[in-house]
Amino acid sequence: MEETAEVVAPRAAEVPMVEQEVVRRIRVLAEAGWGHKRIAREVGVARNTVRRYVRAGRAAEKQVRPKARRLTEAEQQRAVELWTGAAEGNAVVVKALLAQEGVEAGVRTVQRAVEEKRRQEHAAQVATVRFETKPGQQMQVDFGEKKVRLGGQWVKVFLLVAVLSFSRRLFVRAFLNQRGDDWREGVAAAFVHFGGVVLEVLGDNARPLVEEHDRRAGTVRFHPGWVEFCRDWDVTPKACGPYRARTKGKTESGVKYVKRNALAGREFDSFGELERHLAEWMAQADMRVHGTTHERPLDRFEREEKAALRALPARALPRRQQRLKRKVANDALVDVDTVRYSVPHRLVRESVEVQVGDSEVRIFYAGVLVATHARGKEPHGRVVDEAHWEGLWRARAVQPVEGSGGKLSALGRSLEDYAAVVEQGARRGAA
Taking every annotated instance into account, which residue ranges of this chain make up the domain Integrase catalytic (predicted)? Predict the structure, then answer.
């Protein structure tokens, strides 16, 4: 039996690295006008190798980087001054301002000049010292939003979350918007829920609360409506620094907790069911062991904070005061936060003002009250007063019943008359 010879594939030849001197000769000869084939014979390498090194040499010539621009020490100091001042931390603006002063520099050069200052400011912003307040001193508030499935459709729900800073008791209320009235109604409801009023309320820089916050000057101009509300409830308004959300970290954590625990993966048949669920969930949240205090918020509240809260006002205080401008649609309805309310049909296409109260909606036209409704909370619902549509359609004529007057009566005859004629004819035929 013949043995079959094993066929061994030849190993690929290793491509030797071309020495730097050979590469230099290739490029010199190419500059002298020699062709690739002639150069290959001269230096003893493959023609493709010559092509590769000649091509690389041309590409290197095209990509010569300009000499990096370096700022002097004085120019670097000036760049830092502009970055912390007029440029407000923008390197592109610093570059433009330096150019106006006759100093040309790239954006990357400016970034290198201010890098140390930027790192220091970032460290100062990130660094956090936990601030613990006394019982009854502070309540932190914030709004979050989440899409929730209500009645089979997705609805964006706005969640006001309030947290007592000492005990960490939590309050949440759902809204269909987050206007100033919603902030005020939510905060007032939180006071009622906790059974007392704190000394100060810390919020963020939302437009319904803060009109202007100058972090460099350390001044805050609050919204007049928010100032008036705080004055009525005898609390001091506070605002966290811009881009410093950690200064109200208790409620920031509370908003995340509500989204991920109270609402995660849940759907509801109606907005009312959502409100009832949140009320039950708040009681459960008060009984959990808090990760920071290692106590149940309700226990901490009952032991130390409840007695420190000030009494609620003896009389009900106004919470909502904003009037919203709306145009009446062709179906004699106006829309407020997806809920539609009817107005007299004569006002179709007219502009009206809508005032949404705690439990009542009032609609004004030219300063005159034209409609009053119970406040609706179901998204995409309708609240209608049928009297507003009277005269909008023609009344249907009711057809009288045959035999009790009817069309024959209109001709001066009745069924009895015709029955008599038929009977008379039958007698004649029999005769």
Answer: 131-305
